[in-house]
Structure formats: C-alpha cells, structure tokens
Amino acid sequence: MTENLHYDLTEKEVPGWLKERILRLYYERNFFVKYLRITIMDFYEGEVRISMDVRHELTNLVKTLHGGAVASMLDVAMNLACASLQKRVLVLEFNTNFTRGAKEGNTVYALSKVIHNGKRTMVVESKVIDIEGKIMAQARGTFFVIGEFHQEEKEDDKIFENYFSERPSDEQATDDPAK
Predict the structure, then answer these.
(1) Reduced to 3 states, what is the DSSP secondary structure of residue 3?
(2) Are 111 and 77 in contact (CB under 8 A)?
(3) What is the pLDDT of residues 49-90, one digit of tens each?
C-alpha cells in the first residue's frame, strides 16, 4: 500500500460520547449508509477514514463502482469529518474529480480532512483510493453549519428541528388558496 492510504492524521481522539452518538446515528438511522455498507475505520477530530466493498449492486454498466456510489461515499466521509468536530452540517456543494474505477469484489477507502472549521461554514477535502493506494476520486465540499452536538442532549430525533421549523406539516399544507 502506498502513502495515499491516509492523510497525516493528527489522531486526536473524538470524545467518547460524540463517537457513540455519531456511530448510532450513522448505523441505526441512516438507511443509505446501511445500504452502502460503509464502515468507519478511523474517527479523529476533523479527520475520518471509511471503507466500502464494491458489490455488484453498486456497479455501473462497465462493471466498475458507480460514480454515484463514489460521490455518496465522499459525502458521508466529509459529513463525518464535520461531525467529528461536533458540528451538525448540511452540504452546500461539493465537486468531484474521478480518475479511475474499482472492480466488483474490491474494497475502496475514503479519507476526509476538514480544512476550514468556521462558525457558519466548513470546507472539507476528501479522496477515494483503492487497496493499492491509487487515487480514484478527489473532492472538496462546503458545508453549512446548522448546529452542534452537545453531550447533554438526549434526543437525536430533533437534529434538524430548528432548520426545518418553517416547513408546514402535511396537515397544514393545502392546495386551496382560501385556507
């Protein structure tokens, strides 16, 4: 394996309570992460390494890992890097450059590192590599900070409550302009 398998990780540990909460959110409540079968390998402050096996259902017509699966993996890794700094975020944008594919049966890795940790936005760099350390894709994303994780919080169901508070419920929504 080459040096591309990792950034120079600071290996500054994430607080135990935060790691436990993030793992629960990503593995119990994020069904897309479950479908992709993403595994969190390293989870440090501002830095994350995840892996994913290239399964048949994730391949494209030429039998390599679909670009959408690669982009999803990058998105998950960058979101986790933000979460490792106790920030709740939504992606504003990210761009990806694809350089090579991965065949079914292989394992790929995404590595992400926060390069800007602001009050309102965060910027994260990420790359996906194969088992040999060859870069398959690189990305940079900008994320909007919608809140923070706090140790004393007990209900993770309310993560986006304030952000989406202006959206009407199904009972309130109507096509009748008189209502």
Answers:
(1) helix
(2) yes
(3) 999 999 999 999 999 999 999 999 999 999 999 999 999 999
Does residue 157 surpass a pLDDT of 60? no
> Cα separations (Å) of 179 from 60, 166, 167?
48, 17, 16
CATH fold for the domain made of 3-158: Thiol Ester Dehydrase; Chain A (3.10.129)
| Residue 37: how many other CB atoms lie within 10 Å | 11
Q: Say how far apart CA 78 and CA 73 lie, in whole Å.
A: 9
Identity at 68, one-letter amino acid code: G
CA distance readout (Å), 32 to 29, 80, 123, 150: 9, 14, 23, 25
3-class SS at 44? strand
Q: Is the dihedral of CA 126, 130, 135, 137 positive or negative?
A: negative
Burial of 99 (0-12, 13-18, 19+ CB in 10 A): exposed
Predicted confidence band at 159 (pLDDT cuts at 50, 70, 90)?
low
**Residue 109: exposure state from Cβ atoms within 10 A (0-12, 13-18, ≥19):** buried
Quote the DSSP letter at residue 66: -
State if pTM tops 0.70.
yes
In sequence order, the 6+-apart residues with CB closer than 8 A to the CB of 19 are 43
